[in-house]
Design goal:
Low-confidence stretches: 142-165
Radius of gyration: 22 Å
Structural class: mainly alpha
Strand content: under 5%
Helix content: 55-70%
Number of helices: 17
Distance between the termini: 34 Å
């Protein structure tokens, strides 16, 4: 019955919006996207709630660039006073490893709606160390010494403790970061790339949030080899903290036809953060199927279904997908 309504030609933007909500709850993501887009089209783009919900479905699918556009459009339509869209944009930033931007959006959601409990909870769960701050002027102190009497650099770490993630910038580098982010949000990707590179040149080529964000800008420009180089840096040095770097690496490897590398990267993304990113299992299932590993593809798909059922969901399409993989094993 819902699909019959979706195929109707009448003018009913609210009806299509509610239809999108129904499909989203049923796990019929593509139908939900179609319904939301019909609602938006019928209101000539001016339907902030439909843009927000469209973004939520895209976020679930891992289509982060499209989700960002949807949330940003919803916010612009409401003069950036739309708490739910800010909250969801924060979720997107968190998924992409941009924790400080996520916190910014959650604070904006609370400012607009002080009773937005989900934003408060998300903010409370955040890590204060993820806030990028401007370095304070150094105090004059006597140099620290190691047990052997050598001078230890400030912020250095021992091999046992692992590398300390630096999240402070001097004022000039911080300004480049803000310019890059502003350019990116306004769609000026070439300017964004230039400012990210200026920042990284000042930081010895590595500042994890900037490397990640530079890779996103390069991906939008389809400069895949350059994006791959940035993502490799992050995954090698901070992969556990930024599992999204593995995800984007996997997508690029799959695009280049390097399916074994794609499978390995999707597996690393899962190991680092499976509880909140079960969709990575769908990607793992897909690349295994492409390699003819139907048993492995089925195992990943069955694990996905088990986890989403534990969360109280079960997409309607999942049974068809499981049946198709089981048939290929016979």
């Amino acid at each position: 019955e819902l699909f019959a309504v979706l195929n109707e030609k009448g003018f009913d933007p609210i009806g299509f919006y509610n239809l999108g909500n129904a499909f989203a709850r049923l796990g019929e993501s593509e139908a939900a996207l179609t319904a939301y887009r019909r609602a938006i089209e019928q209101r000539k783009g001016g339907y902030s709630r439909a843009h927000n919900n469209l973004g939520v479905v895209l976020l679930r699918q891992g289509r982060w660039d499209e989700a960002y556009d949807a949330f940003n459009t919803a916010l612009k339509l409401e003069n950036f006073r739309y708490a739910e869209a800010s909250y969801n944009l924060g979720r997107l930033y968190a998924a992409r490893g941009q924790s400080d931007l996520a916190a910014r959006e959650w604070r904006r959601a609370i400012y607009v709606d002080p009773k937005h409990d989900a934003a408060r909870l998300a903010l409370a769960r955040g890590d204060d160390d993820d806030v990028i701050a401007v370095e304070k002027a150094p105090e004059v102190k006597s140099p620290k010494t190691t047990a052997k009497g050598s001078t230890a650099p400030s912020g250095a770490s021992s091999p046992a403790s692992g590398p300390v993630r630096r999240l402070t910038l001097n004022q000039t580098s911080f300004d480049f970061l803000q310019r890059a982010r502003d350019a990116s949000e306004r769609g000026r990707m070439l300017d964004a790339v230039d400012n990210y590179r200026r920042l990284l040149n000042r930081e010895g080529g590595y500042f994890a949030p900037a490397n990640l964000e530079l890779s996103y800008a390069l991906l939008s420009l389809k400069r895949y080899d350059e994006a791959l180089a940035q993502l490799r840096k992050v995954s090698e040095r901070d992969g556990a903290r930024y599992p999204v770097s593995y995800f984007h690496l996997a997508r690029l490897y799959e695009l280049k036809g390097e399916l074994k590398l794609a499978e390995a990267a999707f597996s690393q993304a899962l190991e680092a953060n499976v509880s909140s990113n079960v969709r990575f299992l769908l990607d793992l299932s897909r690349v295994r199927e492409k390699q003819g590993n139907f048993k492995g593809a089925l195992e990943a798909m069955e694990r996905y279904v088990d986890l989403v059922q534990q969360q109280g969901e079960k997409p309607v399409w999942s049974e068809e997908r499981l049946a198709a993989l089981r048939a290929k094993l016979q």
